[in-house]
């Protein structure tokens, strides 16, 4: 495939804005980026004129359960391919497949299927149609709080177990990226040590932890907090709990579901003011219902119903979302956050959490050619995944 030059009205790297930008792609990677006149363009380079649009890095979603009518816990190649292609339509070019609490056997079967899909995708010839790249697995549960379980099935919540964790990590085949747990459970801190030694990011979530317990977990190596404000002990001025610890601890990043349903705007503003956009990540927590009409879908082994784009279980509890990261980006910008900072929350920030900031989440030489082209309303016009371009 010949080199490709994309010319845009501007590009956000995301830290730097480049007016009159050009991005040179070669062999599925970014070779150079800068003002159009500054780039040396090899002979035979194909040019894509996108000078009415803004180029930004592809979005990185570290918390996604499904999309396009399929759930990642199905574990089969067909289902995962649907999720990958649907996510890419909305600008997510990389994702971490997120499980939901289930039996240990089911969780491990799903992890084995996802790991197999990742290995096979690495061996396949380059795709011709844009699809998000699966970066690994996020185990959300089963070591979570019964009190703050949300819609996770109570029957499968488990006490922290090092043998169970070893089995999960083995099933993941080296692709375990995050582990979400409740640090107040007996044995949770010891479990954190095992996960951290395996290079897994330990995340706090679905937890009734006090401030003191949360601070102890952060000191022990917890680096992230999932869907902050949701499925957590509420904030109180005398016992600020897990939320107080997350808001005041710069060592830990905080993800948020910015759909206007899970978290009200004043709480979003509080999170951003406390942490700064550089320590907040946008996630979708999306389910199989994402990109689909209202109806009934599955989340793991659960049935959920979507009405007006809002996903709930039979008891009326929120059950994941139908959010996409392009919508989350527009909402954050509508709160007055500068575009470069909002983009960091969906690109460079998640990549840094995963330790892949040189490869994902940035428009820099050597990074994968994952690029989203936006119009003035921040609506997606074209998506490029590892050099593969969506149709106009």
Keywords:
392 residues, Urease, subunit C, domain 1, eight-stranded mixed sheet, eight-stranded parallel sheet, 10 helices, 28% helix, globular
Summarize the structure.
This protein is of the alpha/beta class and 392 residues long. The chain contains ten helices and 21 strands.
Description:
The chain is an alpha/beta fold and 392 residues long. It folds into two domains: 4-55 and 378-389, Urease, subunit C, domain 1; 59-360, Metal-dependent hydrolases (TIM Barrel). 28% of the residues lie in helices and 28% in strands. It is built from ten helices and 21 strands. Strands 1, 2, 3, 4, 5, 19, 20 and 21 form an eight-stranded mixed sheet that branches. α2 runs parallel beside α3 (162-172) and α5 packs across α6 (241-248). The radius of gyration is 20 Å and the shape is globular. The model has no long low-confidence stretch (mean pLDDT 96).
How would you summarize the topology of this molecule?
Layout: E1 4-12, E2 17-19, E3 21-26, E4 29-35, E5 46-57, E6 59-64, E7 66-67, E8 70-71, H1 77-89, E9 92-98, H2 104-123, E10 133-140, H3 162-172, E11 176-181, H4 188-197, E12 201-204, H5 211-220, E13 224-225, H6 241-248, E14 253-257, H7 265-275, E15 280-283, E16 295-299, E17 302-307, E18 310-312, H8 325-334, H9 339-346, H10 348-354, E19 371-374, E20 380-385, E21 388-389
Parallel strand pairs: 1-5, 6-9, 9-10, 10-11, 11-12, 12-13, 13-14, 14-15
Antiparallel strand pairs: 1-2, 1-3, 3-4, 5-19, 7-8, 16-17, 17-18, 19-20, 20-21
Helix pairs in contact: 2-3, 5-6, 8-9
């Amino acid at each position: 495939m010949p080199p490709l030059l994309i010319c845009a009205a501007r590009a956000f790297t995301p830290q730097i804005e480049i007016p009159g930008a050009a991005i040179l792609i070669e062999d599925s990677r970014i070779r150079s980026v800068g003002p159009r006149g500054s780039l040396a363009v090899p002979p035979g380079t194909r040019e894509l004129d996108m000078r009415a649009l803004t180029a930004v890095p592809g979005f990185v979603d570290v918390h996604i359960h499904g999309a396009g009518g399929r759930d990642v816990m199905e574990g089969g190649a067909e289902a995962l391919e649907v999720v990958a292609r649907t996510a890419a339509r909305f600008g997510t070019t990389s994702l971490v497949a997120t499980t939901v609490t289930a039996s240990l056997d089911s969780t491990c079967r799903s992890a084995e299927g996802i790991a197999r899909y990742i290995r096979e995708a690495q061996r396949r010839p380059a795709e011709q149609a844009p699809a998000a790249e699966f970066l690994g697995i996020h185990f959300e549960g089963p070591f979570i709080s019964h009190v703050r379980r949300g819609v996770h099935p109570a029957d499968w919540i488990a006490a922290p177990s090092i043998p169970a964790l070893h089995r999960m990590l083995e099933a993941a085949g080296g692709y375990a990226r995050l582990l979400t747990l409740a640090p107040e459970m007996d044995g949770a801190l010891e479990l954190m040590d095992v996960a951290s030694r395996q290079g897994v990011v330990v995340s706090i979530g679905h937890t009734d932890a006090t401030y003191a317990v949360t601070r102890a977990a952060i000191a022990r190596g917890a680096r992230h907090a999932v869907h902050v404000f949701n499925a957590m002990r509420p904030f109180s001025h005398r016992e600020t709990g897990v939320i107080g610890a997350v808001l005041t601890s710069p060592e830990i990043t905080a993800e948020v579901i910015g759909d206007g349903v899970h978290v009200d705007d004043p709480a979003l503003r509080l999170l951003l003011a406390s942490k700064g956009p550089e320590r907040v990540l946008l996630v979708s927590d999306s389910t199989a219902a994402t990109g689909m009409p209202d109806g009934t879908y599955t989340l793991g082994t659960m049935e959920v119903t979507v009405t007006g784009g809002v996903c709930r279980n039979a008891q009326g509890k929120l059950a994941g979302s139908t959010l996409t990261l392009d919508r989350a980006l527009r909402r954050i910008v509508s709160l007055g956050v500068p575009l470069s900072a909002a983009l960091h929350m969906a690109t460079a920030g998640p990549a840094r959490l995963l330790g892949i900031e040189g490869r994902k989440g940035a428009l820099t030489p050597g990074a994968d050619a994952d690029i989203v082209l936006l119009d003035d309303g921040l609506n997606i016009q074209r998506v490029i995944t590892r050099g593969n371009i969506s149709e106009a």
